Amino acid sequence: MKAFVVDKYKKKAPLRLANMPDPVIGANDVLVRIQATAINLLDSKVRDGEFKLFLPYRPPFILGHDLAGTVLRAGANVRQFKAGDEVYARPRDGRVGTFAEMIAVDAADLALKPTSLSMEQAASIPLVGLTVWQALVEVGKVKPGQKVFVQAGSGGVGTFAIQLAKHLGATVATTTSSANIELVKCLGADVVIDYKKQDFEQVLSGYDLVLNSQNAETLAKSVNVVKPGGKLISISGPPDVSFAKTLKLNLFFRFVMRMLSRSILKKAKSRGVDYSFLFMRADGQQLGEIAKLIDAGVIRPVVDKVFPFAQTADAVAYVETGRAKGKVVVAVSK
């Protein structure tokens, strides 16, 4: 099969189109013909080697974390999927590789594709959908009447988070540029801050939950927006000790992550704020719940551009510019 591979860890390393062996499935796996995939900043971070100490891949490896496609074959123990099913997924860490024509996915990571979406639209959902679901539903436990601040509302995570937070009954604030104000309002944002003209720290206060997806400076300012007893959830770091324990990392890595998160934890504690780092995990059951919301019209995908498979590297470069509205998708096959 054809796939785009990373030959070595290096910042901005080029992706190479290569002929790779067809996947071999185990008893609990499903072989999927990939029809569309999506680009995430996580792809760039993995390629650059930012996670190789605790999430190592042996080059050459296939990049890519989102897929929508059709089941070709199911393993001996799989009962919930069969050949011909239209599915979508974010494969678990250690088994990614969706910039390819086929992939073997653990059945537990897979869900039936929302019937109302095209393959390209469905491919835009898994990683950001699971990230937001786990932040707002699982960890944040957002309730009606609460106030939620979603940073970068026009991005892939932001567009999904605004819609889910509104569905959960929250009042939603977000940041964006003036060009995207109408977009985030249409998605449900109640308070919109043009980050080029206003400082959100000066405008917002008393929020129950902040979803941080930006840099360390923005994270530090976000603490001041959260009310005592509220939650600050970051998907962009710094990782904390709980994350290290989840990955069963050794004492050295736990110490490193304690040092990395020490400053923000101290500041959060002083204000009575609960800080946590979220590193999304694969979960087919949660994708099934998300599919129900999409088919009910509660959440709609926001797709900026669709690139052909041959231009996968160009799609990655476009996402790295930070100008995409919503998600960038690659059509792998029809």
UniProtKB/TrEMBL annotation:
Pfam families: ADH_N, ADH_zinc_N_2. SUPFAM superfamilies: GroES-like (SSF50129), NAD(P)-binding Rossmann-fold domains (SSF51735). Residues 12-330 form the Enoyl reductase (ER) domain. Signal peptide: none annotated. CDD domains: MDR_like_2. It comes from the Bacteria. This is NADPH:quinone oxidoreductase. Coiled coil: none annotated. One of its GO terms (molecular function) is oxidoreductase activity. InterPro entries: ADH-like_N (IPR013154), ER (IPR020843), GroES-like_sf (IPR011032), NAD(P)-bd_dom_sf (IPR036291), YIM1/Zinc_Alcohol_DH_Fams (IPR050700).
